[in-house]
# Entry
Amino acid sequence: MIGILGGTFDPVHYGHLRLAEEVREALGLAQVRFIPAFQPPHREAPVASARQRLAMLHLALQDNEAFTVDTREYDRGGPSWMVDTCASLRASYGDRPLVLIMGMDAFNGFTRWRDWQGILARVHLAVATRPGATAKGEATGLLAERGSTVAELERAPAGRIVEVPISALDISATRLRELAAQSHSTRYLLPEAVREYLLTHRLYRTNL
# Structure
C-alpha cells in the first residue's frame, strides 16, 4: 500500500513527519508520498512560494527512504483539487491500494470537499486520531459505513476508511510562521535543514 499526504507544508514540520511515520508503521505502507499543493483552493495563498515549499520538503524527507516528494500538483499548476490528484495517482498505480492520510478535523469536513465520492472511489482514507478527536456530523455516518481494518484495506484498491491513533504533537505551520516573524526560535519544531533554509532565505521575515 502507498500512503498519500497532501498539504501546503508552509513550512513542513515535525507534526507532518511524525503523522506520516506513525500511519506508515501502523498500516505497513511501502512508502508515503508527500504532495505539496501548488495553489490550495479553499484557503489563503501560502506565504512561501510553491518552489520554496517544494525545496523545504526535499530537505525534510532526505533522511527517510520511505518518504518521497510527489510533484504532480506542482507540475500541474492551478488550483490543487484532491480528486484530480487521486485520479492521477490511480492512473499511475493501477489497482494498488492507495491511502490518503488526513487528520480528524479534515475528515469532519471531508463531505464538503469537491467530489469527495470520486476521491473515495480512487483511494482509501486513513484518519489520524489524537486523544479527544472524534468524528462529527456526516463524518460519523461515513465512518460507520466505510470503517475497516488494515487487512480490508490491503484487499481492495480504494473505498475504505481506517482510524489510526497517533501521538498528540501540538505543532502548526501557523505557529511556526508567527515565531519566525517575531524572531523567536523555531529550533526542535522542524528539521534542522528546513530551519536553516528559513534563515538563508529569510522566509516569514525571520531574523533568527
Notes: The chain has one domain: 2-171. The first helix runs from residue 14 to 27. The mean pLDDT is 94.
